[in-house]
Write a structure and sequence with these properties.
The complex is a heterodimer. Chain A is an all-alpha fold. Chain A is 79% helix and 0% strand. Chain A is built from 5 helices and no strands. By secondary structure, chain B is mainly alpha-helical. Chain B contains 2 helices and no strands. The interface between A and B is large, with 71 and 51 residues.
Chain lengths: 143, 69
């Protein structure tokens, strides 16, 4: 399989440069775009796990553990969304947005541990997850 | 612990493919959003409110999974 992680990061850097060149893009709008991308990414991850469970490829226990972890992830993302909604120009970036970034990093680790796979696929999942998260962090400018 | 069979390993490669496309979805979303960059504060508010509905639905799905459904 051809890895797209590095290319994703390159695309992110190009897009980030595009944002930087647009003087009318506020940090709040950039974070909003990042949140939209995060929701897309987590939704796709959740759909993939659901498909495996429906196909009987993972146990009920693994499915339950994954679901519980995703509930936490969605809660953190929603906290960041709520903070962004109240965020106004001139104010520092809300802490909930940084907290989301931290939790998404941990999510990649947790998913790898919750759903046992071969070492090779674990490595790939880690790389891809990191690439996705790096995209979000770069675009969101949360570090 | 689930026994890792060749068939299961192949399924997981499918999941990896899904994750790769997840990244593509994210970038696609970002690109689309940037095309309309420069939105007003009201438009940003509307986008964040719309995201809330999506998150709520996704969280309910995750809770169903946590309940074993």
């Amino acid at each position: 399989m051809r890895m797209r992680g590095p290319s994703l990061i390159m695309v992110a850097l190009v897009l980030c440069a595009s944002v930087a060149c647009k003087p009318n893009v506020t940090p709040r709008e950039t974070v909003t775009v990042s949140l939209q991308a995060t929701v897309d990414a987590l939704g796709a991850l959740q759909d993939g796990e659901r498909a495996l469970f429906t196909a009987g490829k993972i146990t009920v226990e693994q499915h339950r553990a994954f679901g519980a972890r995703m509930v936490k992830a969605w809660t953190v993302v929603d906290d960041a969304r709520s903070a962004a909604l109240k965020w106004r120009g001139g104010d520092p970036m809300p802490l909930a947005i940084s907290a989301m970034s931290t939790d998404l990093k941990q999510l990649a680790v947790d998913v790898g541990a919750l759903l046992p796979v071969s070492p090779e696929t674990q490595r790939l999942i880690g790389q891809v997850s990191s690439a996705v998260i790096d995209v979000l962090i770069v675009i969101g400018g949360t570090r | 612990m689930t026994q890792i069979t060749p068939a299961l390993a192949m399924d997981w490669l499918g999941v990896v493919a899904s994750l790769v496309s997840t990244g593509a979805v994210a970038v696609s979303s970002i690109r689309t959003a940037l095309q309309s960059a420069g939105r007003s504060e009201a438009e940003i508010d509307a986008a964040l409110l719309a995201l809330g509905a999506v998150i709520e639905r996704r969280k309910a799905d995750a809770q169903a999974a946590a309940d074993g459904r």
